[in-house]
Amino acid sequence: MEIIVLSTADVARLFNVTETTVKRWADEGALCCQRTLGGHRKFLIKHVIEFAEKNNLEPLGVLKMPPGNQCTSQLQLAIMERDLPLLVDAFFERALSPERHNLAQFLSYLYEHKIPLWQIYDGIIKPAMQRIGEAWQQGKIGIALEHQATYATLDALSRLQARIHTKPSNGKTAILACLGEERHEIGLRCASYLIESEGWQTLYLGANIPPDSVVLALRDVRPAMLCLSLTCSMNARALQTRMTSMSKAAREVGACMLAGGLAMKQQDLAHGLFDHVVTTTKELLDLVSQKESDLSARIPALSVSSR
């Protein structure tokens, strides 16, 4: 079973302080804690992250990995030094492992050590999943294993989301969908969770959504953002045809449109069709975390698909 809370010793080890210091933080109300029946302090991960962000604290130590999820000294050092290539290797191995819970624990472990969500998504998950896709294309792994890695990743992302510290609601809503026959939704999931952490509400439509369904959702929800993911390439004429009705509906409700995904590297497909195009969740974060005064009624819609 995954570790849901940290002990006083865990928090002390994470920030390289004494347990007395952690207890003082808790007793002063600076760091939220829960008390067990025996009087022991327990700390939710999201509260620890929130405390670290408010006080500009960076982890100086490493936590123990949950039982059964190996964390070598080399991997611990990689976490401390933000050695992304090594962390990509670790994610790659766990994504292909039959032990699905190991992947979820690993993502939580990265977040516990204050690796930001956008870096987990862009710097670790995205390159690891691209490597898995390449391994399948080269015949090194079968389609069953590739699908296993995909669904293990989606499951791990969902479990991580329950631990993420979210900002207060800003009253804004985003719709996210994979356009047309697009079935790759890991990147879109990452985008959705990142937006939620910034205080947005999301309506996640997922993969393989017909344009007409997106139009209906736009008119019903009237969001500030429409987020479209395009990983599979299509020619400009086909994209224009599918975008026409959605673009019109978005303008009617005052929503901006932003697209992302591997296909959006082809700028000719994006020219003139979207308000914004992003290729990373960091670019997305920069858009949605602007000051309220900078967010006009027409805020960019989003979508980032890593595969």
What this model shows, in words?
The protein is α/β, with parallel strands linked by helices and 307 residues long. It has 3 domains: 1-61, Multidrug-efflux Transporter Regulator, Chain: A, Domain 2 (Orthogonal Bundle), CATH 1.10.1660.10; 67-165, Methyltransferase, Methionine Synthase (B12-binding Domains), Chain A, domain 1 (Orthogonal Bundle); 173-294, Rossmann fold, CATH 3.40.50. Helices cover 50% and strands 12% of the residues. It has 13 helices and 8 strands. A 5-stranded parallel β-sheet has the order 5-4-6-7-8, with helices on both faces. Strands 1-3-2 form a 3-stranded antiparallel β-sheet. β6 (225-229), α11 and β7 form a beta-alpha-beta unit. α1 crosses α2 (19-27), α7 (117-137) packs antiparallel against α8 (143-161) and α10 packs parallel to α11 (236-253).
Write a brief structural summary.
With 307 residues, the protein is α/β, with parallel strands linked by helices.
Indicate the radius of gyration in whole angstroms: 21 Å
Largest sheet: spatial strand order: 5-4-6-7-8
**Into how many domains do the coordinates divide?**
3
CATH architecture of the largest domain: 3-Layer(aba) Sandwich
| Structural class category | alpha/beta
Number of helices: 13
Strand content: 5-15%
The description of the largest β-sheet is: 5 strands, parallel
Distance between the termini: 29 Å
* The CATH C-level class name of the largest domain: Alpha Beta
